[in-house]
Specification:
Helix content is 70%, strand content 3%. By secondary structure, the chain is mainly alpha-helical. The longest helix is centred in the last third of the chain and has 29 residues. The protein starts with a helix and ends with a helix.
Length: 338
């Protein structure tokens, strides 16, 4: 039964993307369904093997999330009902995904890798149609750089780029498992289209990550891939430090792909807000920063769950990556790890 809800959740997520440029109200319904169906799936899995799922780390993270959200709700009167509902959904989705990742049950009954490939092929078709089709919603209004933004009509180009990158990675994995040369050729054509769309979306971080995966795909993954999980933690800390340092120097800014990275103002504002209260520093402010995009992964966790949340997040990340690195992997699994 759990796999049925997982399938429905994944199909709902694709429908959410399909309707995003066509009807925001319908897309919103499918967005809610995606979260709620996934949550039901996780709960069913938890009840089946609750001793394995409800470990100390899971309980501590769940407790921290609930407490942080309760502490951050300073005034219910100042929050709109729909915003409160979205905030609660953010907490529900976080708990659901965390429990899903914490579970040691890796195989789901009647849910196979082929199901993922079918879903991803469907998603790639939608992305390609929106990316190359003659639709007016392919571009949005002029951005801060004086140019029209290529978004596929799906919202923020950075968020859209994540969908496209994961679709490209799944196509690469499918390439390894495709027994027929004809299917491999089709996979390569789709991968090329995904990378072109990534380039058009101009999301520098996502494009950089996709290029790393692409290089790993072409070079058949040298042993250094085991260190990528550490680099993924160090990189956001290093970028945060470099950008804050450059902001202190007159006329200095970091330029990538012809565009400046004007994040330090946002970083300083968030950090000053969190440092203003010991409770916010320790537990974060989940009501104000319910995993909102602060353009830095660790800063986002810090803003939402405080320094305790960051510590638990890093402990959880280390635990999961260590477990994955020690597993025997074929080429497709190594690519998924990267």
């Amino acid at each position: 039964m759990g796999s049925l809800f997982l399938k429905l959740s994944l199909y709902s997520s694709v429908l959410n993307l399909i309707f995003s440029p066509l009807s925001s109200s319908i897309a919103r319904v499918f967005g809610y369904l995606t979260i709620l169906l996934f949550f039901v799936n996780v709960m069913l899995t938890t009840f089946k093997d609750w001793k394995m799922t409800l470990n100390k780390v899971s309980l501590s993270f769940l407790f921290l999330t609930v407490i942080a959200f309760a502490v951050s709700l300073n005034s219910l009167q100042s929050i709109m009902v729909d915003q409160l509902f979205d905030n609660l959904l953010a907490v529900v989705s976080f708990i659901a995904f965390y429990f899903a990742l914490s579970s040691k049950q890796h195989e789901l009954e009647r849910f196979t890798l082929q199901d993922v490939f079918i879903l991803n092929n469907f998603l790639c078709i939608v992305i390609i149609l929106y990316g190359f089709g003659p639709f007016s919603f392919k571009y949005t209004v002029i951005n801060q750089y004086g140019e029209t933004q290529f978004t596929l009509g799906l919202g923020n180009p950075n968020g859209v780029a994540l969908y496209v990158m994961f679709a490209a990675v799944l196509q690469m994995i499918q390439f390894y498992y495709s027994p027929k040369k004809f299917m491999k050729v089709i996979n390569m054509c789709i991968i090329a289209a995904m990378f072109y769309i990534l380039y058009m979306l101009s999301s520098r971080t996502v494009l950089f990550c996709a290029l790393i995966v692409g290089i790993a795909f072409l070079l058949r993954l040298p042993k250094i891939f085991k260190w990528i999980s550490y680099a993924a933690v160090i990189a956001p800390i290093a970028m945060l430090a470099v950008q804050l340092y450059l902001s202190q120097l007159d006329g200095m800014t970091l330029m990538i792909l012809g565009k400046s990275i004007n994040r330090p103002e946002l970083y300083i504002e968030v950090l000053n807000d969190l440092m203003s209260s010991p409770i916010k520093f320790l537990l974060g402010d989940l009501c104000s920063y319910h995993f909102l995009n602060t353009h830095n992964g660790l800063l986002t966790v810090f803003a939402s769950l405080g320094i305790i949340g960051v510590a638990l997040y890093l402990a959880f990340w280390h635990q999961q990556m260590k477990m994955l690195r020690n597993l025997p992997m074929n080429q497709g699994q190594k690519l998924a790890f990267v």
